[in-house]
Amino acid sequence: MAYDDVFQRAVEQLHAERRYRVFADLERRVGDFPRATWHAPEGPRDVVVWCSNDYLGMGQHPKVLAALTETATRVGAGAGGTRNIAGTNHPLVLLEQELADLHGKEAGLVFTSGYVSNEASISTIARLLPNCLILSDALNHASMIAGMRGSGCARKVFRHNDLDDLERLLQEAGRERPKIIAFESVYSMDGDVAPIAGICDLAERYNAMTYLDEVHAVGMYGPRGGGIAEREGVMHRVDIIEGTLAKGFGVIGGYVTASRPVIDAIRSYAPGFIFTTAMPPAIAAAARASVEHLKNSQVERDRHQRQSMQTKIALAARGLPVMPSETHIVPVLVGCPEKAKAATDMLLSEHGIYIQPINYPTVPRGTERLRISPSPAHDDALIRDLARALDAVWSKLDLPRRYEAIAAE
Ligand SMILES: *Cc1c(COP(=O)(O)O)cnc(C)c1O
User: Fold this and answer.
1) Residues in domain Aminotransferase class I/classII large (predicted)?
2) Are 273 and 306 in the same domain?
3) Which one of 98, 257, 310, 370 has the lowest number of neighbouring Cβ atoms within 10 Å?
4) Does pTM top 0.90 for this prediction?
5) Ligand 1 center to residue 116 CA distance, Å?
6) DSSP 3-state assignment of 45?
7) Does residue 406 have a pLDDT over 80?
8) Shortest-distance atom of ligand 1 to CA 253
9) What is the secondary structure of 188-221 as a DSSP string?
């Protein structure tokens, strides 16, 4: 068996489907966000990044950097072990308290990423519930799906954000069977928002648990950055709230918050928590500084919303097909993987603008798009430059300008 040939052919398949991915080799610069150095094949160049998930620029906030460096200098680089064996560092304990408080829950548990937090928590709670049925929104993130699969439990998918479809499945299952409804607050590819209160009403009526991924909302929505559930006054009605420390909070790591028994069970039973080294203490301190800052500061959230709105207005004014979004995400439809790639290549090489094309399987075929994420640091001049550049690229490549015309079913 020529092993390498197998892998070579697998990669060639992606080339044939025009969805082979190329990474941009970037170097971010403190104080210069959202600008970065792009290590291009021909040498380093300045670019403006328009697709970062460091939504608020907290990755270089002075308080976050101070906590990181001060803690690393004082206690060292690594955690030194799993949480069971020497890895429970004091800054991590403080971070978990901070996160429990953020979501108004009894307890919190930190993981090395949001992906791991979803995978480990969902698989563990579903496995511990006898004959559990998981009801999953059709657009849930890959990490939640990995957790559902890992649980070995039955799973039914309800139509995206569709309360009637969810109720039909709840009715079928009956009140007695243990059920978990798993969903997100902000869906990051379309920028739409779940009907959280409506889902909680159904969960109460049919006696189901609720598991909410607030990854694209924490730090950014709610008076203290607790997410959409906080903004809508329903945090206390959601059983388990999961989030990341890597996007709005700008660092790395993931977490769940819930009642003490739920968190204690995950802590005690989840292999993805038990058998891996803990988050380094300096990272925990940096993340906590970020969470704490955003609990008390509204200016980043206000400016984030303003600049996102300004971006949508500027692009729409130039006749670009901005997809409807209720949040800070600005998706612009292209509808074809080759053209999405050609557009982003041209933006980078001719305009110094870095946006990654979003292709299948992240979004359905025919809805390939540019997903633009403005931050508080994308000022009005940068927004004008972006609109001008996109307009030029759209004309040069003769891309469709009407959203309705090419939207997939
Ligand atoms: C990014 C993402 C995650 C994973 O979070 P990481 O901290 O990046 O591992 C989980 N859920 C959703 C919806 C995401 O977009």
Assistant:
1) 46-390
2) no
3) 310
4) yes
5) 9
6) strand
7) no
8) 7
9) TTTTEE--HHHHHHHHHHHT-EEEEE-TTTTTTS
